[in-house]
Amino acid sequence: MPYCHCGSDKLLSDCCEPYIFGAQKAASSEILMRSRYTAYCLQRVDYLLATTHSSTRKYHDKKETAAFASQNHWMRLEIINASGTVVEFKAYYLDNQLQPKTHHEKSTFSKEGDSWFYVDGEWY
C-alpha cells in the first residue's frame, strides 16, 4: 500500500483517500488542503471542483485543472501555517519540462455545515 502524498506518513487508504472518495468529510481546513494536494497527485479533478466553494467554482475550469494536475509531477507538500480558515503551504513539483517549481499559496477556506471548501488563494 502506498503512503499518502500529503506527507502525513500514513497509508493513503488511512489518510486522504477516504475524503477523496467521499467516505469521510475533512474535519479542518488543513485536512481539506492535504486531501486536495493528494487529489492533484492522483488527478482526481472532480474532487478538486467539488471541494471548491460554490462562490468561486465558476473560476475553475475542469479541463485546465486536469491539465495542471496531469502535466506536473508532484513531489511533496509543506504546510507552513494552518489556523482556522487559512492554510499557507508550498507544493513542490516538476513541470512537464522536468524543471523544479514551487507553488506557494496562502489559501482561504470556508466551512458550511460539516463541510470545508477551498475559497481562493494568494500566491507568492
Question: Which structural class do the helices and strands define?
Answer: alpha+beta
**Mean residue pLDDT:** 97
- Over all CA atoms, what is the radius of gyration? 13 Å
Q: Please state the second-level CATH architecture.
A: Roll
- How many structural units, i.e. domains? 1
Strand proportion? 25-35%
Unreliable stretches (pLDDT < 50, length at least 5) are none
Through-space gap between termini:
35 Å
- What is the helix/strand order? HHHHEEEE
The strand line-up of the biggest sheet is 1-2-3-4
Which bin fits the share of residues in helices? 25-40%
Largest sheet: 4 strands, antiparallel
Specify the number of helices.
4
Q: What is the CATH class?
A: Alpha Beta
| DSSP summary, beta strand count | 4
Q: Predict the CATH topology.
A: Nuclear Transport Factor 2, Chain: A
- Categorize the overall geometry: globular
Architecture overview:
This is YchJ-like middle NTF2-like domain-containing protein. By secondary structure, the chain is α+β, with helices and mostly antiparallel strands. It has a single domain (12-123), classed as Nuclear Transport Factor 2, Chain: A. It contains four helices and four strands; from the N terminus they run ααααββββ. The protein has a four-stranded antiparallel beta sheet with strand order 1-2-3-4, with helices on one face. α2 packs across α4. It starts with 16 loop residues before the first helix and ends with a strand.
